[in-house]
Amino acid sequence: MAERPEEHPAAPPICSYEGSRYSTEFWTQARSYEDAVERVALKAMLPPSGGTLLEIGAGFGRLAELYTGYDTVVLLDFAHTQLAQAVARLGEGSSDGNPRFIYVQANFYHLPFVAGRFDAVTMIRTLHHATDAPAVLRGVSDVLGPAGTFILEFASKRNLKAVARYLLRRQPWSPFDPEPVEFVDLNFDFHPRWMWEQLARVGLRRDGVRTVSHFRIGALKRLVPTRILVGLDAAAQVTGPLWQLSPSVFVRSVAAADKPVPTEGSFFACPACGAALGAPPETQFHCECGHKWAQKDGIYDFRYPEP
Ligand SMILES: C[S@@+](CC[C@H](N)C(=O)[O-])C[C@H]1O[C@@H](n2cnc3c(N)ncnc32)[C@H](O)[C@@H]1O
After folding, report:
1. Of the N and C termini of the chain, which has fewer Cβ atoms inside 10 Å?
2. Phi and psi angles of residue 159, each rounded to the nearest 5 degrees, phi first
3. Pairing outcome for strands 50-56 and 118-123
């Protein structure tokens, strides 16, 4: 459902998962193949350990188990109900070998963090909800620290099924046109070449590509055991740097090594004015610009300021 803050009528609309049954209705047994191959790609591309990791559009924290090598993991989503499920599943985490989890309700166009704060950022199945993907990528580049890693999954418009449908005149848009296509309200497919250009524009250097979900075909998934399809997909994923014809693409890019290192201490920044917010309070941040941001039931809310 599209949501737009009343006080910001010009702001890009948001594809809200508030109240949705995404974890149980989308991630059914029928998608165990997609879940498994995405884990294969993420595990292969993400540095196994580090200090701070941010997942943007984390939903209910489906992939959080892959972040156990990080000290602090921030799960960010617009939807409170998604994060509440993540809190129930993962809790606060602990400092004795497991990550400490921080839950943040925010809009990916206004990330509430100090510049350069993260060693790694991931964004899986989320950028396709952005009407202004370049703006989101600018924010990602901003919060990444020196030589920080960004793992992005995006829905590719130049996939075999779209090519066949286009050639058979069963689809009006061309999979070869580099511009994003909004095939359903607030759902975009991107051309890999367009995405490479956007990453370069925000100063991120592409250093790895995996093509994912080559066998996302209902009949195949029903007939062939999932573990065999996953093995075949894992083998096909490594052809990613050569060609991209799968519906899902994972790309790893890296921030410049000479970016300024953020000063110790500050973590959150006010999404309204950008000022660093200092140590997290019990219930509410008070920014010097006058905005207040609440923390309730373990979730920081940076979507709309407190009255
Ligand atoms: C398809 S789900 C992906 C969840 C998770 N990454 C996964 O792969 O299971 C997309 C998520 O993006 C979130 N989202 C959509 N627009 C957003 C925005 N403007 N800011 C933050 N999160 C957003 C939705 O609430 C939803 O939880």
Report:
1. C
2. -110, 160
3. parallel
Task: Name the helix (H) or strand (E) containing 161.
Answer: helix 160-167
Q: 210-251 pLDDT, tens per residue?
A: 999 999 999 999 999 999 999 999 999 999 999 999 999 999
- What is the pTM for the complete model shown? 0.95
The mean pLDDT of 275-293, rounded to a whole number, is 89
Query: How confident is the model over 17-49, as pLDDT tens digits?
Result: 999 999 999 999 999 999 999 999 999 999 999
Domains of the chain: 2-301 (3.40.50.150)
Question: Pocket around ligand 1: residues whose beta carbon is below 6 Å from it?
Answer: 14-15, 17, 57-59, 62, 77-79, 82, 107-108, 124-126, 129
Report the alpha-carbon angle 53-213-192, nearest 5: 70
Cα–Cα separations (whole angstroms), residue 88 to 39, 74, 82, 92, 111: 22, 15, 10, 9, 24
Residue among 5, 30, 17 nearest 61 (CA): 17
Tokens standing for 293?
Answer: 């941001």
Substitution candidate for ligand 1 out of 28, 32, 78, 85 with most atoms within 8 A of CB: 78
What mean pLDDT comes out for the span 274-279? 89
